[in-house]
Design goal:
OMP/PagP_B-barrel, mainly beta, 249 residues, disordered N terminus, Porin, 2 domains, 8-stranded antiparallel beta barrel
Length: 249
Amino acid sequence: MKNISKIVALCCVLPSMNGTAGTMGAEEVQYHWKPVIGVSVSPSWASGGETQTFFLQPDIEKTYTANKETSSFATGELFLGLQKNLSTNFIGQFGLAINATGNAGLSGDIWEDADPDFNNFTYNYKINHVGVALKGRIIGFAERFLQPYVSGSLGVGFNRAHDFFITPKIFEEVPAPNFRANTKTTFSYTLGAGIQKSLSPHWQAGIGYEFADWGRNNLARAPCQSLNEGLQLSHLYVQQLQFTIMYVT
């Protein structure tokens, strides 16, 4: 009887011990927000431009064809946010992203009177972007050696179109006045995916692809231009290979 009593007592104690152990195991996954700071650098590529025909004055019409050649430049980003374990398998990062880029170059030909037979000039200009956005990242398989992630951001962009220059193809031709620089405030967004690795409890490093839409941009009128604005784009799409290092407190 004494042995039976001991067995019954042990059976009563074990479930409570298992419950306590389960609670301790759950507490190992921390579900509170922790500050995180990240820095990213990216080689970036843009190919854009659109053929546009418009009047500069009532009797002056021109066509600006676009070469749509790929332009490469650098992009940098600072991320300030918070990180939290969403579950045992997923981590969330949410915060403010500030980014700035080098110059994307655009070029093409100019047809006088919108006539391809009078293709006597080429043009070049540059666009650079500064953006401030709300950005989020979802990181999967929190305990794995390599962790895949997806990211996205929505924000405001400041696109500066500048350094417009016309080059004659024929020495005797005299170019029209250049369009002037202009900064356009617009909506911008990014979408990305990649992999990262936890180097320590505090440091993370990752590599990924990011697609960005800088949004609208345009050059300002040239001197003596009375109609329309300069060249303009509704979108400029950019692709980036993003290298990121992050510190979690």
